[in-house]
Design goal:
single chain; Four Helix Bundle (Hemerythrin (Met), subunit A); 3 domains; 4-stranded antiparallel beta sheet; 16 helices; 15 strands; 48% helix; binds zinc ion
C-alpha cells in the first residue's frame, strides 16, 4: 500500500488509482527560455522516481509533462537575442530534454507544447464563460474566482484574505471584477505571436494551459498532479478552479509538491548571484551525482546545495558504483556449487532488505531511507558476495542490488562520467578473463566482458601484439 502526502488534505493518504494498475500523472513542465537551474532539476528527478516506483510494482503510468512555449519571458528573450520565438523555444526544448536525459529521467509519455494545444484551451475557456465562471472585457478573458466557491481549497487560502492582502498593494484595474480574478486569454501586443479566438487575436494565460492539456491527455479526473511547492498558489489553485469549474468533476485526487532547494543556505536568486544551472553543476560533479544528491533527502524537506555536499554525494554514489563493479567481478569468479550453509543463512537477509526498501518507498516515497537500505546492501555485498562465493549466492545479491538501484535510477552512464573507477589491474584481470573465454570458444561471455568494460568507459582493442585498452 502506497501512502502519499496529499497537499489537498494536508495528510498522508492511502493511494488508490482511478483505474486498476494505472496511474494518470501530470507534472507541470518548464517555460522554455533558458537552461533549467539546479532547483528545477529536483522535481524532474523526484517525480521520475515516483513514476519508476509505480512502474516497478506493475503500474502503467501515463506521465504527462508540458512545455510552456509561449510566454512573456520567451518573447523577451527572443527580442533580446534577435531571434524568433520558435528558435528560442526549439533550442531550449532540445536542451531541456538533453538535461533530463543526463539525469536519467525517462521521457514523458506525452510532452505537449502549449502552442499545439490551442483548440483545447479555447474550448475550455468557452465552457467556463458559458457556465458563468469567466467573463470577457475588451478581448481579455478573466476567471471569475468569486463564482467558484471552493477557490482556495488547495492552498488553504481564504478568498477574502487574499482580497484584503492584495488590495492595498495592487491597483484594481477597471477590467477585473475582483483582485483575485486571473487571465485566461489576453490580446496580443504588437509583434507578439498570437492565435485567433472568439475574444481577440491573442494567447492564453499560463494556468489554463495545464488544465486543458491534463484534460486532453489524462481525462477530467487524474490520479496525481505534481510540481514544486512554489506552484501551489496561484498556479495549481487556479488549475483546480478551471478544471473543476469546466469539467464538474474532481481534478486531481492527489497533489504532490516538492520542497525548495537552497544554495549555501540561501535562497537561489539571480540578484544574490548564486544562480546555478543544472548544466554547470552536472558538468562539475556528474549528472548522476545530482540525481543521487536529490534523492538523498525526502522530497518534502528543504534541501541545501553546496559544493561540499556535492562532494559527499559523489563519494556516496561512488561506493554504490564500486559495489556494482565488485559484484560483477565476483559474478565471473564464482564457484559453481550449491550454496554453502553460511550463504543459505545470509541469503535470508535479502528479502527483508527488499521489503524494507519497499516500505520506505511506499511511505510517501522516502528515498532517503530507501538509499540507506541500498547502503546496507552494499555493505552486505562487499562482505559476502565476493570472489570464491557460489554463483547462485552472488547472483541473488547482484539481482537484488540491480533491481533496487534501478528503481531509483541512480546507476547509469551520464555524459560527464568520464573517469572510470576500475584500476589498471582490474581491467587487466577482465581482459585475461575475456581471452580465456575466447580460447574456450565462449564468445558470448567474451562479448559480455567487452560490453561491460565499455560501460565502464574502457575500450579494448585486439591487436597483433595482444589486447590493448584505452579509457574514454
Ligand atoms: Zn501547470
Amino acid at each position: 500500500m502506497i501512502k502519499i502526502y496529499n497537499t489537498l488534505s494536508k495528510q498522508k493518504e492511502e493511494f488508490n488509482s482511478l483505474e486498476q494498475n494505472k496511474v494518470r500523472m501530470y507534472v507541470c513542465g518548464p517555460t522554455v527560455y533558458n537552461l533549467i537551474h539546479i532547483g528545477n532539476a529536483r522535481p524532474y528527478i523526484i517525480f521520475d522516481t515516483v513514476r519508476r516506483y509505480f512502474e516497478s510494482i506493475g503500474y502503467d503510468v501515463n506521465y504527462v509533462q508540458n512545455f510552456t512555449d509561449v510566454d512573456d519571458k520567451i518573447i523577451k528573450k527572443a527580442n533580446e537575442e534577435g531571434k524568433t520565438t520558435d528558435e528560442i523555444v526549439d533550442y531550449y526544448i532540445k536542451e531541456t530534454l538533453k538535461d533530463a536525459n543526463n539525469l536519467n529521467v525517462n521521457p514523458a509519455t506525452h510532452h505537449p507544447r502549449v502552442t499545439e494545444e490551442m483548440d483545447g484551451i479555447i474550448k475550455m475557456i468557452e465552457i467556463l464563460i458559458a457556465k458563468g465562471l469567466a467573463y470577457e472585457v475588451n478581448g481579455t478573458v478573466y476567471y471569475h474566482t468569486s463564482e467558484f466557491p471552493e477557490y482556495g481549497k488547495l492552498s488553504k487560502k481564504v478568498l477574502e484574505e487574499l482580497e484584503a492582502g492584495r488590495s492595498d498593494r495592487i491597483e484594481m484595474t477597471d477590467d477585473k471584477k475582483s483582485h483575485m480574478d486571473f487571465v485566461l486569454w489576453k490580446p496580443k501586443k504588437e509583434g507578439e505571436p498570437f492565435w485567433k479566438s472568439p475574444w481577440s487575436d491573442g494567447r492564453p494565460g499560463w494556468h489554463i494551459e495545464c488544465s486543458a492539456m491534463a484534460k486532453k491527455y489524462l481525462g477530467d479526473t487524474i490520479d496525481i498532479h505534481a510540481g514544486g511547492e512554489d506552484l501551489v498558489f496561484p498556479h495549481h489553485e487556479n488549475e483546480v478552479a478551471q478544471s473543476e469549474g469546466a469539467n464538474e468533476a474532481p481534478f486531481s485526487n492527489y497533489w504532490m509538491h516538492n520542497s525548495f532547494l537552497n544554495i549555501d543556505n540561501k535562497k537561489m536568486s539571480k540578484s544574490l548571484g548564486n544562480f546555478k544551472t543544472l548544466r554547470a553543476v552536472g558538468e562539475a560533479f556528474g549528472y548522476d551525482t545530482v540525481r543521487f544528491f536529490m534523492l538523498s533527502a525526502h522530497y518534502r524537506s528543504p534541501l541545501n546545495f553546496s559544493g561540499e555536499l556535492m562532494e559527499a554525494a559523489k563519494n556516496g554514489l561512488e561506493r554504490i558504483k564500486n559495489a556494482k563493479i565488485n559484484l560483477e567481478f565476483a559474478m565471473t569468479h564464482t564457484k559453481v556449487s550449491d550454496m554453502t550453509i553460511e550463504e543459505l543463512k545470509l541469503a535470508q537477509e535479502l528479502p527483508s532488505l527488499e521489503s524494507r526498501f519497499h516500505e520506505a518507498m511506499q511511505d510517501d516515497f522516502n528515498t532517503a531511507d530507501a538509499l540507506s537500505i541500498i547502503f546496507e546492501l552494499v555493505k552486505f555485498a562487499n562482505s559476502y558476495a565476493k570472489e570464491g562465493a557460489t554463483e547462485s549466492f552472488v547472483k541473488q545479491v547482484y539481482e537484488l542490488f540491480m533491481k533496487l538501484t534501478d528503481i531509483l535510477g541512480i546507476l547509469y552512464t551520464s555524459q560527464n562520467t568520464s573517469e572510470v573507477s576500475l584500476t589498471d589491474e582490474e581491467i587487466q584481470a577482465y581482459i585475461e578473463k575475456r581471452t580465456a573465454a575466447k580460447k574456450a570458444k565462449d564468445f558470448k561471455e567474451a562479448d559480455r566482458i567487452r560490453e561491460f568494460l565499455n560501460d565502464q568507459g574502457v575500450i579494448i582493442e585486439d591487436t597483433r601484439e595482444g589486447v590493448r585498452f584505452k579509457r574514454v
